[in-house]
Write a structure and sequence with these properties.
Radius of gyration: 19 Å
Oligomer: single chain
CATH superfamily of one domain: NAD(P)-binding Rossmann-like Domain
CATH topology of one domain: Rossmann fold
Helix content: 40-55%
Order of helices and strands: EHEHEHHEHEEHEEEHEEHEHH
Strand order of the largest sheet: 2-1-3-4-5-10
Structural class: alpha/beta
Mean pLDDT: 95
Shape: globular
Length: about 300
């Protein structure tokens, strides 16, 4: 497999950069990485050209329109259209061109809003997703259905992985589109710099998340690439449920912030609770997350401070 031509869409994004480094370190010699911003993967002709040019044997599809609650609420049409069309086109062309294996990356947002904990893969269709990111979640559900339909009709080897909330070095620190961990780090840093006595965090702080360090996620993807060819989706999570309030406090301690935290409940929490059942990942991939939240936050903060000093 290490001599196969592997096309990684979204390779210049947060997860993509970590995955490329891991594949290179593991000896994969033919990694194909489209130039960022050049190819519009929602357009049929662009995707056809990409496959004709690269002639991949394996595809890992990370391409996505992503963002936090604010971005999802502001641009629901972009999240629905972009993620649906990119996924449909890329997977269809992969089948059409005889790609040997297709790895589709999903999202824990696909689970119902009030799903019972821990989220098991068989619960995906038990209800409607959380409203703040429903367009994004529905697009990701469509791609799961596409992978299973193409397998059933064409024998296409498409697998589907469901990472939970990712974070780590290289995360998106754009205040307009960032997720909760980089957004929290930015707010704390600003308060320290401006000598403000408090920070404001969206929501009540009572929502919970299953935070997965990005390099642990990459390990799960590589394991699935090398060993898994099944039809069932697989969760990739940390196995630990953490309140947003506790994550914020941990980040404040690591950054030396001694002010108070004000929770702005006018803004939504998003999904009330999130914890993935990773039994299938353990059984099928031998996967379990190795990085606890304290260590992962520490590495993320150190990386971010290093970028600020450049």
């Amino acid at each position: 497999m290490k001599d196969k031509r592997i096309l990684v869409t979204g390779s210049h994004g947060f997860l993509g950069r970590h995955l490329i480094r891991r594949l290179q370190a593991d000896g994969y010699s033919k990694i194909l990485s489209p130039i960022r911003g050049v190819h519009d993967l929602t357009q049929q002709m662009e995707v056809r050209w990409l496959f004709d040019y690269f002639r991949p044997e394996i595809v890992i599809n990370l391409a996505a329109v992503i963002g936090g609650i604010g971005a999802n609420r502001a641009r629901p049409a972009d999240f629905l259209y972009g993620n649906t069309m990119m996924g449909l086109e890329v997977m269809h062309r992969a089948h059409e061109r005889g790609v040997e294996k297709f790895v589709q990356i999903g999202s824990a947002c696909i689970y119902p809003r009030d799903c019972s904990l821990p989220f098991k893969e068989e619960n995906i269709w038990d209800g409607y997703p959380e409203g703040t990111n429903a367009p994004y979640a529905i697009a990701k559900r469509i791609l799961l259905e596409q992978a299973q339909a193409y397998r059933k009709q064409y024998g296409f080897n498409a697998i589907y992985l469901i990472p939970t909330n990712l974070y780590g070095p290289g995360d998106n620190f754009n205040p307009e589109t960032s997720h909760v961990i980089p957004a929290t780090i930015l707010r704390i840093a600003e308060a320290i710099h401006e000598r403000q006595p408090y920070i404001t965090v969206w929501g009540t702080g009572n929502a919970t998340r299953d935070f997965l360090y990005v390099e642990d996620c990459v390990d799960g993807i590589v394991r699935a690439l090398e060993t898994y060819d099944g039809s069932e989706p697989i969760n990739l999570g940390s196995g630990r449920e953490v309140r947003v309030h506790d994550m914020v406090n941990e980040a404040a301690i690591l950054m030396g912030f001694i002010g108070s935290v004000i929770y702005d409940s006018v803004h939504p929490d998003g999904q009330p609770r999130r914890l993935l059942d990773c039994t299938r990942a353990k059984e099928k991939l031998g996967f379990s997350a190795q990085t606890d939240l304290h260590s992962g936050l520490e590495k993320t903060i150190q990386w971010w401070r290093g970028q600020c000093q450049k």
